[in-house]
Specification:
The protein is an alpha/beta fold. The protein contains 7 helices and 11 strands. Helix 5 runs parallel beside helix 7 and helix 6 runs antiparallel to helix 7. The longest helix is centred in the C-terminal third of the chain and has 26 residues.
Length: 245
């Protein structure tokens, strides 16, 4: 039988990690890569797996590549602590890895916000891969590179993306600093195009092209916050150039 490893990166996820772990008990191996949590995350994880590694966080790619090097399964599923594998997705994953047609598979993630799933604000993300064909690159928005063809699973992953409005704004703020620092390292400068057109286009693309208006007020709220995140990225780039961080 083909073995499946599940990799879960964590940092202070005591309120989410147990449900994530329960949803993947069907796997042959569960690996938790923890960034030295100071809550009960590790203690909870120990109830489900002995393969817990603690590593100082430097960037997302290095963290996940380290965990990947510890995996023993022929196939690997990457899961975040705020995600859940449904029974339908579980069955599909187990069937696919026994008779694969591709080297990696995308899974659909409808975002969860304001107590509902946003089916027009979703992502298709590569999460299921052959272990020896995959590697992460990038620092902020890490990319999973797969040496081979990519397929698409039919069933979606439950993703409890945002723990609340305040958490989402904090998340955007953190990402904006990461992205601004990357641009600053490349000596990029902020222009009026970046400050006005790019945030507007992010909002327009989300609401009208991807159709998030069909998700009602929650969908439009997320579109506004995404546009705000783009605006913040370039404001922070100005602050970095002016040595104001």
């Amino acid at each position: 039988m083909i073995k499946l490893s599940v990799i879960i990166p964590t940092y202070n996820e005591e309120h989410y990690i147990e449900a994530a772990l329960k949803s993947v008990t069907f796997a042959d191996e569960i690996i938790v890569i923890d960034s030295f949590s100071d809550d009960n995350t590790v203690a909870i994880a120990e109830k489900y797996t002995s393969k817990i590694f603690q590593r100082k966080f430097d960037n997302f790619s290095n963290q996940k590549n380290y965990a990947l090097s510890q995996a023993t399964g022929e196939w690997v599923l990457f899961l975040d602590a705020d995600e859940r594998v449904t029974h339908s997705l579980e069955n599909e994953i187990l069937e696919v890895i026994q008779n694969p047609e591709h080297e990696g598979y995308k899974i659909n993630f409808p975002h969860f916000f304001m107590n509902r799933f946003l089916y027009h604000h979703d992502d298709d993300v590569i999460r299921l891969v052959r272990r020896d064909k995959a590697k992460f690159t990038g620092t902020v928005h890490e990319k999973l590179d797969v040496d081979g063809s990519i397929g698409q699973l039919k069933n979606f992953m439950l993703h409890f993306t945002y723990k609340g409005l305040h958490h989402y704004i904090q998340k955007k703020e953190s990402y904006a600093w990461f992205q601004a620092e990357q641009l600053y390292a490349k000596n990029k400068k902020t222009t009026y195009f970046h400050l006005f057109f790019k945030p507007f286009y992010r909002f327009f693309n989300s609401v009208f092209i991807r159709g998030s208006f069909r998700d009602g007020i929650p969908g439009i709220t997320v579109a506004v916050l995404d546009a705000y995140g783009v605006f913040q990225r370039y404001v922070k780039l100005i602050l970095l150039h002016r040595k104001m961080k």
